[in-house]
Specification:
Elements (H helix, E strand, L loop, with lengths): L4 E6 L3 H10 L5 E7 L3 H11 L2 E3 L2 H6 L5 E4 L6 H10 L3 E4 L7 H13 L4 E3 L7 H11 L6 E9 L22 H16 L5 E8 L9 E7 L5 E7 L9 E8 L2 E6 L2 E6 L11 E6 H4 L10 H14 L10 H20 L4
Parallel strand pairs: 1-2, 1-4, 2-3, 4-5, 5-6, 7-10
Antiparallel strand pairs: 7-11, 8-9, 9-10, 11-12, 12-13, 13-14
Helix pairs in contact: 4-5, 5-10, 7-10
Length: 345
């Protein structure tokens, strides 16, 4: 028991509860405490889980009961929590987009790097087996040199007029389609292709929301000549669940991928990957790596288990560090700045 990681969770909403159920299955973790301002949440957790509960993160961290935390609060609250934890020598997994301001993100990345603390951002697509396979195909040159791509994300998150009362309806608190959905689509580009060198042609659209964008588009340019487009819409009622899609066109073929399957079109046979000329399809069941506990998708378990195993000193590569989070926020800020230049009066 003394060798186990003593974990705390800050914020017990939907993601906090999801992560609680997953991380509690790791044999080297003991969930010691949670922090949430809700009296109802705190009392229920105390009664049915037996963990210690706190009304604020400072008291939980200062209690000395935890040496790692999961931060699952709204995005605008991340910075002070993560900074406080870092200064206290606490390892942190933080839900995306990790902060709402690039300057703050850089401060946190520098802090955690200087203290050699494990840090991870919850861009879960990097742990999805289909996108991991897509990355290996791209890096292996299976479709040749990348020429064009498009990264898209759709959901029906906002499907009726929104008066703008909650944090998701305010861009300053991390709301809007760009922070909530676009961050995933942007990070997927950074992961599979690389951070763009320039952002142009960005525009926002309101559909149901009064204060934030419901849809957005942008174009990414690279110094080597490749380019791609981003399109995000969280008011598309044709999608029951959030869906990430990416299409990558190369000199030898193309890839179409989402969280569940990948289609590969090749101009010539690839014996190494056992791919024929024309179309080949792989499903998540063809490439998935088993996890000990399943909630929502293997990738949700894998990211938290990787976080824990990094703390334990396992020989792993952190594929979604705070430094990676900084790169995604750099693109987000470029899109925001660029969109202001493209308004037609």
């Amino acid at each position: 028991m003394n060798n186990k990681i003593k974990l705390g969770i800050v914020g017990m909403g939907r993601m906090g509860i999801t992560h609680f159920s997953i991380i509690n299955t790791h044999p080297q973790v003991e969930v010691k405490a949670v922090a949430d301002p809700s009296k109802i949440v705190v009392s229920l957790l105390k009664k049915y889980t037996g963990v210690n509960t706190f009304k604020n993160y400072e008291d939980m961290i200062n209690s000395g009961e935890v040496n790692a935390i999961l931060v699952c609060t709204p995005p605008h609250l991340h910075f002070p929590i993560v900074e406080y934890a870092g200064k206290k020598g606490i390892h942190v997994f933080c839900e995306k987009p990790y902060t709402t301001k690039l300057k703050e993100a850089k401060i946190l990345a520098d802090l955690f790097n200087s203290k050699n603390l494990v840090n991870m951002v919850g861009y879960v697509n990097r742990h999805n087996d289909i996108f991991v396979k897509a990355k290996s195909l791209v890096e292996g040159g299976v479709i040749g040199n990348i020429i064009r791509f498009k990264s898209e994300m759709f959901s029906c998150t906002v499907d009726k007029p929104d008066e703008g009362d909650g944090w998701r309806s305010n861009s300053a608190t991390g709301g809007g389609a760009l922070f909530e959905m676009g961050a995933h689509a942007i990070d997927l580009v950074n992961y599979l292709i690389g951070k763009p060198d320039k952002v142009v042609g960005s525009s926002f659209n309101k559909i149901f929301s009064k204060k934030v964008e419901d849809a957005l588009s942008s174009t990414f340019l690279y110094a080597d000549g490749k380019s791609g487009t981003l399109f995000v819409n969280w008011s598309d009622s044709s999608f029951r669940k959030p869906s990430n899609k990416i299409e990558i066109f190369g000199s030898k073929g193309k890839i179409l991928a989402d969280q569940h399957s990948i289609k590969i079109f090749l101009n010539e046979e690839n014996k190494t990957e056992n791919l024929r000329i024309g179309w080949s399809t792989l499903y998540i069941t063809d490439v998935f790596r088993p996890v000990p506990f399943y909630v929502r998708g293997n990738e949700f378990t894998r990211q938290l288990y990787d976080f824990v195993n990094l703390i334990l000193g396992d020989d792993l590569v952190n594929i979604c560090s705070f430094d990676d989070g900084v790169k995604t926020l750099e693109v987000i800020e470029e899109i925001i700045s660029n969109s202001k230049l493209n308004t037609i009066n």
